[in-house]
Amino acid sequence: KMAAPTSRESRGSEPGAAPYGNFPNYSRFPPPEGRVSLLPRGLLRSLFPAATRPLLGLDVGCNSGELSVALYRHLLGLQDGSSGPEPPGAGKELKLLCCDIDPELIRRAQQSSPFPASISFASLDIMDSGAREPFLSSYLQRFGRSSFDIGFCMSVTMWIHLNHGDGGLLDFLGLLASLCTFLLVEPQPWRCYRAAARRLRRLGRRDFEHFRGLRITGDMAESVTRILTQQCAMELVRSFGSTAWDRSLLLFRS
């Protein structure tokens, strides 16, 4: 089980001071525009052409919400681009539930959210089944649903993997596959694992418990794709390319 971070861990300016990836001002490192610019406009409309009810989205590991809001704007055509805004009514209604292990980051997200009626932020350890299952079930029941239409897992897989090992990564991806019809994943490459471990050591902290025992290594985008397609009964719909910092953006469908 992933323990809740301390104030020192969540507020330290050094990324290595946040062993769950919950460092503040995360969006300043990889800005949201670097991800959302890879996604085609009208993506929700193309994935759900016949939807007549609000779409439900789940964003796991949302940090302080900047990327969640950017995704919401982009997917609903609310963000101006070089080709101009989408015509009125081109988007779909989206209810987005965003969760993170760090309550301080969630408080910041709640305070700054420009769409409080459509984007909900909640402090949740997604790996704690005792907390996760009643919370997600309660949220879905509000809409008479049993699953989410689309899930987002943006630079989260490494932190799950480092803190919960190979088994934890498999469980996490299996969970997302069971919860979401479509899943957008941005796996961190293996070099990021090494960098995260070096930062902890540089700060004089204990290494990640599972780092040296991991067997799922190497090309992490390929590994995540293999797990989701071969073990979780999902199919890879599309790769939207890679960000400037070499992270693939992959869309899967159950």
UniProtKB/TrEMBL annotation:
<comment type="similarity">
    <text>Belongs to the methyltransferase superfamily.</text>
</comment>
<keyword id="KW-0949">S-adenosyl-L-methionine</keyword>
<protein>
    <recommendedName>
        <fullName>RNA methyltransferase</fullName>
        <ecNumber>2.1.1.-</ecNumber>
    </recommendedName>
</protein>
<keyword id="KW-0489">Methyltransferase</keyword>
<keyword id="KW-0808">Transferase</keyword>
<dbReference type="GO" id="GO:0008171">
    <property type="term" value="F:O-methyltransferase activity"/>
</dbReference>
<feature type="region of interest" description="Disordered">
    <location>
        <begin position="1"/>
        <end position="26"/>
    </location>
</feature>
<comment type="function">
    <text>O-methyltransferase that specifically monomethylates 5'-monophosphate of cytoplasmic histidyl tRNA (tRNA(His)), acting as a capping enzyme by protecting tRNA(His) from cleavage by DICER1. Also able, with less efficiently, to methylate the 5' monophosphate of a subset of pre-miRNAs, acting as a negative regulator of miRNA processing. The 5' monophosphate of pre-miRNAs is recognized by DICER1 and is required for pre-miRNAs processing: methylation at this position reduces the processing of pre-miRNAs by DICER1.</text>
</comment>
<dbReference type="GO" id="GO:2000632">
    <property type="term" value="P:negative regulation of pre-miRNA processing"/>
</dbReference>
<dbReference type="GO" id="GO:0005737">
    <property type="term" value="C:cytoplasm"/>
</dbReference>
<dbReference type="InterPro" id="IPR010675">
    <property type="entry name" value="Bin3_C"/>
</dbReference>
<feature type="domain" description="Bin3-type SAM">
    <location>
        <begin position="33"/>
        <end position="254"/>
    </location>
</feature>
<dbReference type="InterPro" id="IPR029063">
    <property type="entry name" value="SAM-dependent_MTases_sf"/>
</dbReference>
<dbReference type="InterPro" id="IPR024160">
    <property type="entry name" value="BIN3_SAM-bd_dom"/>
</dbReference>
<dbReference type="GO" id="GO:0008173">
    <property type="term" value="F:RNA methyltransferase activity"/>
</dbReference>
<dbReference type="InterPro" id="IPR039772">
    <property type="entry name" value="Bin3-like"/>
</dbReference>
<keyword id="KW-0963">Cytoplasm</keyword>
<dbReference type="GO" id="GO:0032259">
    <property type="term" value="P:methylation"/>
</dbReference>
<dbReference type="Pfam" id="PF06859">
    <property type="entry name" value="Bin3"/>
</dbReference>
